[in-house]
Amino acid sequence: MFRFWQRLSLDAPLLKRVLLVWIGLELCVAFILPSVLPTRWYFDLYLPDKAVESTHKFLAGEGYLKPDVNVGWVNQSNLHEHHWQTDQFGARTTATYAMERNGRGRVLFAGSSMINGGHLASNAETISGFLASNELETMNFGTMLHEMDQVLIYYRHYLKQFQPDLLVVGINPDPVSGLKNLYIPLRRPKEVYMPYLKPRFEYKLGVLALLSVDPQWLSPLPNQQLLHILGEHDAYYGRFERYQRTHFMPLSRSVDYLRKQFSRVSKLWQGSDENAEHLLELLMQLLINEAAAAGTKVVFLAMPDAAQFRGGWKQKLHDDYGDRLARLKKRYPVIDVRKLFRESGWRQKQLFQADRVHYQPAANELIADALRQSDLSCHILHSCQQQAVRQ
């Protein structure tokens, strides 16, 4: 390397000066400016204009979701937008229900938009819609981007009062990454429509502690209080810190790009995050225990995306869905939706919407039928006799 610079000084002194200035600027931008310039300046650049606009609309109560001081966000109530319809409680239903019980069976659904069907499915085309009957009330409280920690909090503060016989909870394709996250854009920088704050649990030294958030912390955006909390408690804050160091100069951006690609490939050979997986299990157990104390049975749906359903070469190297399911089924009542889909013999387009995440109505009907037939839930749904007849 020394000979290279010596030769360069003799043959191309101007080029050497340019390279030295360039490298000096790269180092200055990466290591000096972030400690000098206000962090909020970088955060202003980190957030796309669309994300800022979405935040303002969210705090003003516009759109499909509204702020909630306990859960972070919940469905708007009494909303009717094309296929998307919610009742007075913010649930997707096919009939009008009261909070009080009336003698009929009652099933509540909770989880992400994979549970609620997404905005392209009508209420009748959701899992809950296919399960509903004259003898059974089904209320779908699935909410976009909800994680297992939010489901637990949602049940504690709201869903418990409906006194359901059965609570059906979706397990997302990646159910652990969101458990380490407070601010959605840090984990998903391209998510400009839901740049929201969520609560999370931290498990340290054998103690499970809830870190609550207030959506109003997003106003004004950014602010020092928000940045301090994210720096202390969001596991993805390091991504923003790398953005400060590597985003603004070409060499730094190239090095960071190569680092991301290497990290993405190396994950195929790495095991799961044991701490996050343990936290997931703790939250599931808490939900089961608290629901049982109120007379409610909980059943989980392990919900794959299209990549996990296909089982390509990445899944052969590391089938995180299969590994997690095998572990969870030993302790919890879990229905394997991937197995259900594969045994149906249907192709991907028949099961998944174009985004390869949300399910087609026919797939939702398959899941509803599986709930009727499963030993985990048929006695609550009064469908065990139907199962015996089919067998």
Concise summary:
The protein is an alpha/beta fold and 391 residues long.
Strand order of the largest sheet: 6-5-7-10-11
The total strand number stands at: 11
What is the CA-CA span between the terminal residues?
Answer: 75 Å
- The CATH superfamily of the largest domain appears as SGNH hydrolase
- Secondary-structure class: alpha/beta
Overall pLDDT score? 91
Low-confidence stretches: 387-391
CATH class of the largest domain: Alpha Beta
Helix content: 40-55%
Number of helices: 20
Shape: globular
Main beta-sheet strand count, sense and barrel state: 5 strands, parallel
- How many discrete domains? 2
Radius of gyration, taken over Cα atoms and rounded to an integer in Å: 24 Å
CATH architectural arrangement of the largest domain? 3-Layer(aba) Sandwich
**What is CATH's topology name of the largest domain?**
Rossmann fold
Indicate the proportion of strand residues: 5-15%
Oligomeric state of the chains present here = single chain
